[in-house]
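[09:14] KT: can someone run the structure on this one? pasting the chain below
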Amino acid sequence: MIQDYFKPGKGDLLLDARKRIYLTIEKFPGLHFRELQRMNNLGIGNLDYHLNYLEKNNLIKAEKSKANKRFYPLGLNDRERNILGILRQRNFRKIILKLLEEKNITHKGIADYLKISPSSATWYLNQLLSRNILIIFKKEKRKQYQLKNKDEIIKVLIAYRESFVDNLVDSFVEAFEK
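[09:31] RB: done, structure tokens below
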């Protein structure tokens, strides 16, 4: 019995802190380190130790982006992880929800909607283009932006609705489900 405890896979989630971290990642996929730290009220070293353990034992997947490392439960495909990583960021989420509502929008439309400078809007749109979330097309000599895989984004939004503390997401999902 005691020997079984030390076999790989046995006891991985017996520690309360580790189990809390794992359940948080399962409920809120795509969180970054600091969000996990705040939600679980753990010190940096303690959280880092448990995340490394969970990753080493193939219980979670970590993906490093330019600014953050995001954590996901196993079972999500690359596309779902990409979408969740983007949706975890407020302005990206606002742009995506706006495009779900309006179908396509101009650069100026995004800048006005987010109340940001044109150069900031360019940065956000370029990030979404490089992450394969948006496509550009011309309509009446004007560039317009549209979601590339609208159905997949809707599926992820609905599946993880509770993990977004955002009235915009709730409003969209409620309208979509009617």
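[09:33] KT: thanks! Residues 44-56 form the longest helix (13 residues).
[09:34] RB: yep, looked fine to me
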